[in-house]
Predict the 3D structure of the following.
Amino acid sequence: MTSLHKLLSRTFLFLNPDGVKLFLEVLNDSSPQNLSNNDGLVFLKLYDPEQTQIRYIGMLFVKASSRPSDILPKLRSLAGFCADEEMELYEEIKSEPSAMCEALDANITFSESQIGHGDIICYQKSSKSLSHHAYPSVEIFFKRIQDLKAVVLGEQRKILALEEEVARLKHQSDLQTEKANMECQRFKRERDNAVRQLNELQDQNPQIFLEFPITNLLQATENFSDLCKVGDTEYGCVYKGIIHDTTVAIKLSRSDILFQQEVSILRQGRHPSIVNCIGKCSEVSALVYEWLPNGNLQDHIVCANGSPPLSWQIRTQIIGEICSALLFLHSREPHALVHGDLRPCNIFVDANFRSKICNFGMLTLFLQPGNHQPALTARLPYLDPEFLTTGELTPLSDVYSLGVIILGLLTGLPPLTIAKKVSEALENNNLHTLIDKSAGNWPYVQAKQLVVIGLSCVEMMREKRPDLLTKVWSVVEPLIRKPPAAPWPYVQSAVTGSYAPDHLICPIRMDIMKDPQVASDGFTYEAEAIMRWFDGGNNRSPMTNLPLANHDLVPNRALLSSIQEYLGQQRQPGS
């Protein structure tokens, strides 16, 4: 936070039972610094009646002499509305005990509307077409919040009065005391129900999904044409399409239950090594994901469609990324989230050969009575043997699957009986004969470390398998952090157009770092990216999801020197 004096601030609204609060969030210094007296910084919030949610969407510098109608195109662009979308604008006013708003006339100037520096403008689609929603406008939404707060406060006063009455009646009769306590509990339940409703209205989940109209999906897939289909599994059919000039993967879920389960799981948060869900279309139970052009890991292992073998450096990195994603899933509270179907076809590779997992937490749905049973033949080599006898999935089930994948990446052998073959080669000191030579000159010491950890993961009994954090990650993490023996391409630099070494890349922004800072998890991030992570209320590592000891940052000057040297080489003629 050493450059805090260079940062601008913004405020955003968070609604809770205790009132309306304004919080401070820092932004980068890319905005104008010298404002005239006629300029003003206003903050923008978008209200979504369908989700019953109001969220911060951006900020804008306006002139006092301009009108709200002048910024309507910008507001539509920020919200993703069409160019002719009719909208309503409101000014958010902070007042006790809650927030309120007033409608804005788009045709009078900001100065006439008394909109000044630091004010908040809320906007939405025209409520005329939204009357079927419970709270079609911002005004009604805020009024509902105030009403619920009044209910909560009223019930709390009733509870207090009742508790005083209980204390007095204790001296008269045990029967009267019991009756008063029962009445008190009834009021408490009513209070809790009102609080629950309030929390549902003001829920601001960190994972926000766009709601796409079905017309977008039909246009992107040519009415779900087979020509656009790229995958077909028990989870659903996957299509490749373009929405808003962005290539995406569109998955039509096999059932509404599968769709709701996947949405529920994906709402629990993002991770760099989990396929990013952009939005959904509830009308047809479809999910819209980022498009990963390099397909799945299975295709790369068998070099399908003439794809070149993955280098040993990339394979090591992939092992680390899968391990990091599993740590994130297993650390969910109050219960660990188990993938249950971890295998190479559910691990995808992006344009920079970064791996991301998908379809986690879904297998258990197929195992419920009455549901279609999944095909076990392809899954069998990766399934926890104890799961096959008990029907119970645990985090150690994922550890078993990870072990099979590690051995497969090391050797290129089919998964069935791979553990037995590798174990025999290790015992006979013939491990070098099994290591996949198409991956390049894999350092023997590193390969042996991964073989040992992979074999420990595929123990038949769960109690003998290693803990993912203390035993597996402690071995894998140092391997992926070691500088490579020779440079290899991972991420294409937007500045130079060439491929940059992976250790120069921020794991959050996926671009070459300008100000690398080491966080308390030991990973290096772009300063602005990690500070935004902290400012969003995150107290866990973006890479491991483990609690961070603190928010302190230490400049990585050695890495900064390497970055500057690399960029200098790229700018030289002929490089």
In short: The chain has a mean pLDDT of 81. The CA atoms of residues 343 and 379 lie 8 Å apart. DSSP finds 15 helices and 20 strands in the chain.
